[in-house]
């Protein structure tokens, strides 16, 4: 079945034009003035704009179950005292219901693809497939510097990578958690497995100053230097946070084609103590992308809000109002994210994946409408999303996703049951 979107504003990182979009199967076939055929689904685009789906490159989807459970704490205390004890009680079904709720929230706020790091990959993949989303799912692990734990984890990761291959629109990945929970042997093996199974690697890097200092004390060298020595730095890697990197480390990561996921809301809320050195990343053409991190440290998955936080944080932290302008953060949240996930998406052009978001311009915050990109970044919220198409299929229409009440109810029940265990 083909879809024709008529008379719509078309906005991506390269252009803002008016016209029609024609979708055949899961790809954009034509953009411009399109006639269409008899059996097409026709969507009236008047008063609307179509943008590429937003790509959330760092989250832990099922952690929506912990939304507002532990707030106003520093990172390590938050993890060790509140989050990890609760995660120890999670069952696969909780993760399934949590991920479904996260997908619902993401679709309703214009995200079409996300990069997840959590446990129980089959539960996550099932939820993603049922919701019609696209996701990179990493089999996450900690080894806590224990040889036996590492061996067991690697076996599990390899099994998970095989299982993930059977799911449509799922990109498999390995998810070693962070430098303070995974040994260098574990990181080296992670990249080797990713290469063997043509997967990505998803990792937390340089989130706090303490992490950087501890690493130097333990290994006698900087973290990026050590990662380079073990062959960990390449285009398969999506490194979340990266707020405590030197300019030389940024240069090296750019040379190795690493992808960075910037998570400004989580960084500000957990008070990690610095802001992304975006100017240096831009100077060396490092692929900067955008993530929400989990709803336990954000506390939502709204990428519209995240775009605004990212650009405001840069301007405020570096006292530079011209830094990270609206067009740049829009490209970061669309095209750069798609590049990191290795998918041909993020532009509205023939041959690109039909991962598209139609927004309703009849909102007070889009009025009077002097500059649509500026309105999308600085004024909009996720509630402007009207219709979402992922892989050529309509997954949300007129602001509604099928079964949304039930998804919320089941996730609420799972969260309450988890807390009472
Ligand atoms: C191994 S699954 C992912 C693991 O990461 C934890 N987590 C969530 N947010 C953060 C963050 O900002 N920094 C470090 N770790 C984080 C999550 O609770 C899971 O245990
Ligand atoms: Zn995270």
Automatic annotation (TrEMBL):
Residues noted as binding Zn(2+) in the record, renumbered to the chain: 58, 60, 204, 293
EC number: 3.5.4.28, 3.5.4.31
Function: Catalyzes the deamination of 5-methylthioadenosine and S-adenosyl-L-homocysteine into 5-methylthioinosine and S-inosyl-L-homocysteine, respectively. Is also able to deaminate adenosine.
Stored InterPro entries: Amidohydro-rel, Deaminase_MtaD/DadD, Metal-dep_hydrolase_composite, Metal_Hydrolase, MTA/SAH_deaminase
Stored SUPFAM superfamilies: Composite domain of metallo-dependent hydrolases (SSF51338), Metallo-dependent hydrolases (SSF51556)
Top-level division of the source organism's lineage: Archaea
Needed co-factor(s): Zn(2+)
Protein's name in the database: 5-methylthioadenosine/S-adenosylhomocysteine deaminase
Keyword Zinc: yes
Cofactor note: Binds 1 zinc ion per subunit.
Domain named Amidohydrolase-related: residues: 50-395
GO terms for MF: 5'-methylthioadenosine deaminase activity; metal ion binding; S-adenosylhomocysteine deaminase activity
Family: Belongs to the metallo-dependent hydrolases superfamily. MTA/SAH deaminase family.
Residues noted as binding substrate in the record, renumbered to the chain: 87, 149, 177, 207, 293
Known catalytic reactions: S-adenosyl-L-homocysteine + H2O + H(+) = S-inosyl-L-homocysteine + NH4(+); S-methyl-5'-thioadenosine + H2O + H(+) = S-methyl-5'-thioinosine + NH4(+)
């Amino acid at each position: 079945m083909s879809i024709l979107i008529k008379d719509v504003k078309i906005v991506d990182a390269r252009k803002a034009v008016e016209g029609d979009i024609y979708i055949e199967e899961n790809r954009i076939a034509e953009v411009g003035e399109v006639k269409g055929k008899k059996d097409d689904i026709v969507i009236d685009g008047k008063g609307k704009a179509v943008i590429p789906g937003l790509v959330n490159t760092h989250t832990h989807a099922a952690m929506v179950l912990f939304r507002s459970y532990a707030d106003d704490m520093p990172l390590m205390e938050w993890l060790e005292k509140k989050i990890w004890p609760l995660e120890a009680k999670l069952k696969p079904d909780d993760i399934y219901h949590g991920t479904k709720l996260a997908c619902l929230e993401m679709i309703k706020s214009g995200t079409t693809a996300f990069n997840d790091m959590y446990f129980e990959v089959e539960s996550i993949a099932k939820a993603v497939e049922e919701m019609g989303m696209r996701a990179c799912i990493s089999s996450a692990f900690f080894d806590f510097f224990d040889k036996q734990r590492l061996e067991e984890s690697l076996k599990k990761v390899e099994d998970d990578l095989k299982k993930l291959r059977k799911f449509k629109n799922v990109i498999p990945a390995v998810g070693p958690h962070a430098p303070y929970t995974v040994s260098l042997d574990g990181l080296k093996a992670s990249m080797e497995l990713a290469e063997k199974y043509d997967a990505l690697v998803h990792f937390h890097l340089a989130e706090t100053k303490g992490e950087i200092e501890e690493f130097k004390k333990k290994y006698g060298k900087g973290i990026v230097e050590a990662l380079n020595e073990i062959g960990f730095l390449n285009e398969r890697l999506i490194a979340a946070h990266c707020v405590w990197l030197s300019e030389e480390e940024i240069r090296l990561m750019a040379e190795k084609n690493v992808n960075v996921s910037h998570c400004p809301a989580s960084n500000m809320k957990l008070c990690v103590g610095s802001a992304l050195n975006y100017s240096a990343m831009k100077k060396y053409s490092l692929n900067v992308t955008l993530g929400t991190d989990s709803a336990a440290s954000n506390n939502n998955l709204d990428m519209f809000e995240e775009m605004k936080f990212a650009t405001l944080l840069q301007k405020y932290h570096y006292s530079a109002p011209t830094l990270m302008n609206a067009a740049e953060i829009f490209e970061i949240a669309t095209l750069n994210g798609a590049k990191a996930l290795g998918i041909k998406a993020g532009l509205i052009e023939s041959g690109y994946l039909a991962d598209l978001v139609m927004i309703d311009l009849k909102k007070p915050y889009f009025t009077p409408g002097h500059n649509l990109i500026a309105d999308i970044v600085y004024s909009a919220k996720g509630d402007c999303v009207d219709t979402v198409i992922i892989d050529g299929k309509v997954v949300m229409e007129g602001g509604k996703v099928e079964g949304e009440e039930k998804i919320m109810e089941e996730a609420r029940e799972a969260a309450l049951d988890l807390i009472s265990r």
